Amino acid sequence: MPPHQPHVVLGVCGGIAAYKAVDVCRRLVDVGVYVAPVLTDEATRFVGEATFSALASEPVQRSLFDEASPIPHTRLGQGADLVLVVPATAHFLARYAAGMADDLLCATLLATRAPVLVCPAMHTEMWEHPAVSDNLALLVRRGVLVVAPEEGRLAGGDSGAGRLADPDTIVARALDVLGATGSVVGPGRGDLAGRLVVVSAGGTREPLDPVRFLTNRSSGKQGHALAEAAARRGAKVTLVTASALAVSPGIDVVPVASAADMEAALRAVAPRADVIVMAAAVADFRPKAPAAHKLVKADGVPDLVLEPTPDILSGLAAERRPGQVLVGFAAETDDPIGRGRRKLAQKGVDLLVVNDVTAPGAGFDHDTNAVTILDADGGATAVPLMSKSAVADAVFDRVTAQLDPERNSP
Ligand code: CTP
């Protein structure tokens, strides 16, 4: 069983920075956090409920009175591992400091024992007003955590202190708080504790000249979700990636571009790995002789001669150490299961995750996926359409069943 998925109540108040809460919501979901959005009435003047309902893990809640359950604030408050408020307005800080419970967000904050992280954003004059400073100081004395605003451009063209902290900073701090409470499992805990899991992700880029390359439609989302899931389950994770997607702190990232870079990076770490998941879309062909200088029209149409890239996964399988579990991926459009079975045998892997990329909602660049996990004994596990994070957990459920309980990474 995967470990507990961390739950965050994301409170959004009515300030111009509310649009940045959309990014925070999405990034938390991307790294496997369950996000329950609570919007104040004023927030909906700045951002649409539909945006959050589409991106978060459950629909937006706005009122103490419209849920089927008569006490939504206690459900939200008791189930939270963290309540995060982005942006926290002066009005919100005053009501929270006064202990008011006149809307769902403030009532949830009174009904929770989880850590609370507030991210204020307002104009400089308001931020520096003693009423705001006093309210914030009172909240800090009560244990509320704060991501302070930054200096920068504010609404209306002004500049100064009060701009919402960068979403990267907010997400990193939220994950730190979750890690500290044990909600994000992290190294040393969970069913992959003590294991080194290596994941490859993204589509490789094969240069034609210094400004052009051949690549494919892989976004890297499934590979990154696998790395995040392995980290949540306690593994030490190395992610060899050709994608620029954000990665949680604690995961070792090796950025690569070409198949040759990816092969070198994987071969360096493979001898120590307990599990290698090859989710990258490695180019099968590359330009044989990439030009050292930019190709220009005046030179005429270039003769594009391609050569095969190394089959990285087959190479890793040939040199694998005893007990190491190897997982391949296959994006297919025709006869996915038949082709997947043949590929599993040819590549010599333990598990092959087959993706029918023509299925609605599955494959390239979607946030969801549907796969079939084939094993070397002829077994097949169908994983219906779900988030890429949940698919990643389904893959590791199969991986952990194959790991030798006695053996850990050297
Ligand atoms: N793979 C690899 N090195 C390559 C090509 C693919 O390691 N040069 C890995 C992929 O990361 C994936 C698995 O092999 O885990 C299957 O990739 P896929 O592209 O589906 O298979 P191919 O070997 O390219 O076979 P085909 O062209 O017949 O689909």
The computed structural class is alpha/beta
**Distinct helical segment count:** 13
The N- to C-terminal Cα distance equals 25 Å
Percent of residues in helices comes to 25-40%
CATH-wise, what's the superfamily of the largest domain?
Answer: CoaB-like
Shape: globular
CATH architecture of the largest domain: 3-Layer(aba) Sandwich
Biggest β-sheet description:
8 strands, mixed
Q: How many strands in all? A: 19
Domain count: the total is 2
Describe the strand arrangement of the main beta sheet, using strand numbers.
Answer: 12-11-8-13-16-17-18-19
Residue ranges: pLDDT <50 for 5 or more in a row? none
User: Compute the gyration radius: what is it?
Assistant: 24 Å
Give a nutshell description of this structure.
Helix content is 32%, strand content 24%. The protein has 410 residues and is α/β, with parallel strands linked by helices.
SSE layout:
Layout: E1 7-12, H1 18-30, E2 34-39, H2 49-55, H3 72-79, E3 82-88, H4 90-97, H5 104-110, E4 116-120, H6 124-127, H7 130-141, E5 145-146, E6 150-153, E7 159-163, H8 167-180, E8 196-201, E9 206-209, E10 212-214, H9 221-232, E11 236-241, E12 252-255, H10 259-269, E13 275-278, E14 285-287, E15 306-308, H11 312-318, E16 325-332, H12 336-347, E17 351-356, E18 368-375, E19 380-387, H13 388-402
Parallel strand pairs: 1-2, 1-3, 3-4, 4-5, 8-11, 8-13, 11-12, 13-16, 16-17
Antiparallel strand pairs: 6-7, 9-10, 14-15, 17-18, 18-19
